[in-house]
Amino acid sequence: MSPDSRASTTPLTRRRTLAALAGATLAAATAPAAAAESDGRHRPRTIRFATFNSYLNRGAEGQLLADLEGGADPQIQAVAEIIQRVDPDVLLLNEFDYVPAGAAVRLLQRNYLRTGHHGAPGVHFPYFYAGPVNTGVPSGVDLDGKNGAVTEPGSDAYGQDAYGYGFFPGQYGMAVLSKYPLDLHRMRSFRTFRWADMPGNRIPADYYSPQALEVLRLSSKSHWDIPVRLGGGRTVHLLASHPTPPAFDGPEQRNHRRNYDEVRLWADYIAGGRQAAYLYDDAGRRGGLARGARFVIAGDQNSDPYDGDGSDAIRQLLASPRLHPLAEPPASSGGVEAAKDQGGANAGHRGDPRYDTADFADSGNNAPGNLRVDYVLPSRGLTPAGNGVFWPDSGDDLRRLVGDGYPVVSSDHRLVWQDVRW
C-alpha cells in the first residue's frame, strides 16, 4: 500500500494481515500474513517488533499499580487497545514504571490487554521482562552541585541527584512483552556502566564534581540486550533503551551530551570488535554483540535525525553498516495531518512529518513540535516487511485513541512497528 493509504478499521483477528491494521500508514507494497507460530522445524514467516512510549508513568510510587488494579483507567484502556490493534509479537514499553517481581506487567495483562476493547480482541504475551532502571535511584552524591545529596524521594531536587531523573525509584521504567521465549539467562544489561568509562565521551567539562564522575552512570534508564528465541535455533537480540531527552539543562548541555552517548552505546555495541571493547555489562562481561548476530534496536531515543535538539545523536546510529537500509521508515498519514493542522514549530521542520512518532508542544519557549524519536531498527540478516506508525488521521474512527495533542488520550508518543523475516 502507498504511504498515503489507510488500512481498514475492521477488528483484527489472531492471524492478522497488514491490511487489517487500522489507522497506521503502511510502507509495504504487499500485505504478507504475519504468522506468530513456529513448530521448531519451520522458520516463522513474519515477526512484528514494536516500541511504544506508553505514558504509563505516574507522579507517585504505587499509583500505577493502583490504576492497573482498578481495570477502568481510560488512558490505560486506550494504550491497551492500541497494542491490541497492532498486535505485536515483541513489544518494548517505555515510560512504564518499574515494580519488582513484574507486578505491574501482570496487572496490565490481566486487567487490560487480555480484555478486548471496542471490537479489538485481547492479546496475551506469555513472556516478559521488567527489570530495574536508573531513574529515581539515588546516587548518594550531589550530582547537580546545588544543594547537597538529596536522598528523600518525591521532589525535583531528588530527581536531579538520582542516576536518572525521577521522583522515585523505577519511574519512567521499561518492560518487554513477548509471544516468543526470552533468553534471560543470556541477556545483558548495561545499567551500571559508568559514563566516564566511555572513551571520547561527551561529559561536560567542569560541571560534575570528581565524586559525581566516580559514580555517574551512562544509562538514564538502562540498556538491555535480550535474546528472543524464535525456534529452530534462531535468535534475534532485542536492544532496548530510552535515552534521556536532550533538553531541560543549561549551557553545559549535560542532557544533550548524555543523550548522544546513550545512543552511541548501541552504535558501538553493534559494531563490536575493538570499537566495543571498552563496554562492560552489569555482570562484568566485556565487549559488544557477536559478528553475524541478528538484532532489532527499539525504543524512544529522544532524537530526530533532522529537527529538534540532539539530531546528531541518532544519525550516528542510523549510519551503522550493520543496520538494514530500510526502503521506507515507519510512517503515518496522521502525522502529516497533525503537523499541518498544529503548525507552529512544525512549519520550520526539515524532516518529513510522515515519519513523526511523537506529538509534542508546537508553540511557546523551546517547543520542539512533532518529531521522529521512536525507532524499530532491524539488522542486516533480517528482511524488513511491513511497518507503520499508529497515528490515524481524522477520517479514521481510531483517531479517538491518539487524540489531537493535549490533553493526552493515550500517550504523546505513537506506537511504532516493524515486521521482519529471517
From TrEMBL:
* The keyword Signal is assigned to this record: yes
Question: Quick one: where's region Disordered?
Answer: 324-355
Q: Which residues form the Endonuclease/exonuclease/phosphatase domain?
A: 71-413
Any one GO molecular function term: exonuclease activity
- Whether Signal counts among this entry's keywords is yes
Alphabetical list of Pfam families matching this protein = Exo_endo_phos (PF03372)
Quick one: signal sequence residues? 1-35
Give start-end ranges for the coiled-coil region(s): none
What's the superkingdom here? Bacteria
Q: Which UniProt keywords apply?
A: Endonuclease, Exonuclease, Hydrolase, Nuclease, Signal
Name the record gives this protein: Endonuclease/exonuclease/phosphatase family protein
